[in-house]
Structure formats: structure tokens, C-alpha cells
Amino acid sequence: MRRLAILGSTGSIGTQTLDVIEKIEGLEIVAMSCGHNFSLFTKQLERYRPAFAASLSTEENPLALSSVKRFFHGEEGIEEMLESSRPDMVIVGVSGAAGLRFSLKAIEICKRLCLANKESIVCGGDLLIEGCKEKSVELIPVDSEHSGLFQLLGEGPRPDRIFITASGGALRDWSVERSIDATPGDVLKHPVWSMGRRITIDSATMVNKGLEVIEAHYLFRYDEEDIETYICRNSYIHAGIVYRDGVVKLHSGTPDMRIPIAYSLTYPFRERVIDRGGITGIPLLLEEIDGDKYPALELARNICGKQSKQIAYNAADEIAVEAFLRGEIKFGRIYNIIERTVSRIDDQRRADYRQILEIDKISREIALEEVSKCF
Ligand SMILES: NC(=O)c1ccc[n+]([C@@H]2O[C@H](COP(=O)([O-])OP(=O)(O)OC[C@H]3O[C@@H](n4cnc5c(N)ncnc54)[C@H](OP(=O)(O)O)[C@@H]3O)[C@@H](O)[C@H]2O)c1
């Protein structure tokens, strides 16, 4: 049995990971953590019975849970949980820059990091990637596009270009003018995927695709201009590679996150975790992305490789999305807040962990100031 820890078990990636684990054999959940959704977490602990567990908040009393040998609290507690449970694999399904800390701790302990938390790479830059190499830890991306590229980029000649796709988000058929006033209710209606709230908003601004271009740059060592992005409305094409002779290889399949999650856990083997569907009659169409409609994607391209700006881009987006969801700013303001925050952070190509935390903190302060100017 391989020992697995799931970080962020109460989220979209976390709950789908639990669903996958019910369908494949040979995995034992030894540790699980949540943020603040303790009522769901309690049900998960009762069902999956890990020996170690942790939550972000400090209030819960876990003594009622007889299966849990040790319960930890807070961010440090999540790290202690990893140390005590000694998993072979860790899936990081935590959202936001907070995930970097856990990814870095995980690679001190485990042999495989199944990484859904793209912010670990956007903010960590080479730190996490080099750490994995030094410690001989396998880094398997969970993002469907990067899982696709990971599967396409095997042996043989290196393709000239790679590409990833976007659905276009909930507002893809709205005009720019109309989108400015979209409500959280409008934007949270994703046309294809069911995901956490931030990533759903990020799909509509294409901040998510911007983060993914940066993620692909570090993971696969392509320059930003050789990482193309297209809209695939039904998300059946996740990614592709283009060779110098013009041959294009696509990674396509049912848009269901349980597939890349399972692949990250079972690699190099494959297990069936969704019903076998037909493959006829499914259009495989790529469309150009309208840069005027999605300026956040262009901004991400401009800062790709500049770690300090990447940290600012992510931090400002986290702050702006929260403000939007609280009804404090208009949808159209999210980009302005990110752009102004990024422009106020000095350009630094590489940062160590202490500097990452500092830049993240300053960026959040600037972004909050920019949010308050919108009132
Ligand atoms: N959802 C998808 O389909 C998808 C696809 C590709 C990549 N991703 C990436 O996967 C990550 C997770 O996305 P998601 O959609 O699953 O998010 P989500 O539904 O919001 O879930 C986030 C999880 O992390 C926990 N959490 C939040 N902040 C935390 C912190 N500071 N420390 C510890 N735990 C914390 C939450 O706990 P509580 O809910 O208990 O508070 C929850 O369990 C993101 O980086 C996202 O970009 C997601």
C-alpha cells in the first residue's frame, strides 16, 4: 500500500481525490487536512479514517473522532501532520499562495508530489522545482492542461511549441462592456468545470490561464512566446504540442478533473475512474483568444519569469477576487487592481523563500489599498 496525504480535502480537488481513491486500489490515506470547513471534514474523517489530521482553525475539538491518533492545528500543524504521518505521496489541493509552504514541506518527506496548487510554482518559481530535483521527488502536475503536457512531452525530439486551452469562463459570450458589471452569481456559473470559487472567477478573467502559462514555463522550460493559449469551448482538448515539421499532437478527453488526479496518483499506470464514454461526435475546435477581452492573460505573459511580479500578480488577484465576491468591487476592477499592484512591485527574477513571503505580504497590502480606492 502507498501512503497518501491529502491537503485541502474539503475543497474541489480534495473531494474529487477522495472520490478517485474509492475507485483505485493500493492507496492508504494516512493524513488529511482542511481549512475551516470542519463539518464536512468531520464526515470525511469518519469515512476515510486517517490516523493523522489537521485543520487551519484552532477551535475544533477533534477528541470525538476515535480513528484519529493525532490532530494538529494551524499552518504549522499541517506541516507537523506531514512529518508525523510520513506519506509516500502528498496531493496539494490547497488554494492560493499558502500552498507553497506545504509543497515545500511535502518534498522534504514524500517521494511524489501531486501538485494541484499552481501558486506553488507561480510564487515559488524554481524553488520548488529545484527542490524536487535535489531530493529526487517526482513532481506530477494535476492541472488538466499540465497533466496533458506532462503526458505528451516524453522521449524524442523536443517540440517547437506547446499550447494549453481555456474554456473562456462564464462570460465568454458577453461583451467587454457588459462583463464589467457581472455579479458573482453570473461569474460562478462555469460552462464546463465545477471548481472552487477563486479558480472559477479566474477562468472568467483568464488570470487562471495566465497563472498556467507561468506554471508551464517553469515545469516544461519553454519561453512564454512558445506557450500558446486557445479557447476550446467544450474543454475536450486540454493541451497540445507542435513539432517543427508541423505535426500537432493533442491531449484530449472528457473534461473531468478526476482523470488527471488519478493519473498523478497512479503514474505511470492508468486506472479508469469515470464511466467509459463514446468518442464520436465530439467537436475538437480551437479558437483564438481575444486579447482585449482578457488583458490579464497578456499581463501574465509580460511578467512570466519575473518572480517578484508573479507573486504580486497572484496576491493581488487573491485579494481582488475576495473583494469581488464580497460585493466590494465590480468584476471589471479585478484586472485594474492586479495591474496596478504588479506595476508597484520591483522587478526581481529570483527570490528565496523569505523574500517570497515578504513580496507576497507587500503585494497584498498594495492590493488592499487599490481595492479601497474603488469604493
Ligand atoms: N478545482 C479544480 O478543478 C482545479 C483544477 C486545476 C487546478 N486547481 C488548483 O487546485 C487548487 C485548489 O483548488 P480548488 O478549486 O480545489 O479550491 P477550493 O475548492 O477552494 O479548496 C481549497 C482547499 O484548501 C483549503 N484551504 C484553503 N486555504 C488554506 C490554507 N491557507 N491552509 C490550508 N488549507 C487551506 C480549503 O479548506 P476549507 O474549505 O476547509 O476552508 C479547501 O479544502 C488551486 O490552486 C487551484 O488553482 C483546481
Determine and state the CATH class of the domain at 2-141: Alpha Beta
Q: How many beta-strand runs?
A: 11
Q: Please state the overall shape, judged from the principal axes of the Cα atoms.
A: globular
Number of helices: 16
Rounded mean pLDDT is 96
Order of helices and strands: EHEHEEHEHEHHEHEHHHHEEEHHHHH
Terminal-residue CA separation: 55 Å
Low-confidence stretches: none
- CATH topology of the domain at 2-141: the name is Rossmann fold
- Oligomer state of the chains in this structure: single chain
What's the CATH superfamily of the domain at 2-141, by name? NAD(P)-binding Rossmann-like Domain
Give me the side-by-side strand order of the main sheet.
Answer: 4-3-2-1-5-6-7
Summarize the main sheet: 7 strands, parallel
Helicity level, as a percent range?
Answer: 40-55%
Overall structural class, as computed from helix and strand content, comes to: alpha/beta
- Percent of sequence in beta strands: 5-15%
- Provide the CATH architecture of the domain at 2-141: 3-Layer(aba) Sandwich
Q: What's the alpha carbon Rg, rounded to whole Å? A: 20 Å
Small molecules in complex:
NADP nicotinamide-adenine-dinucleotide phosphate
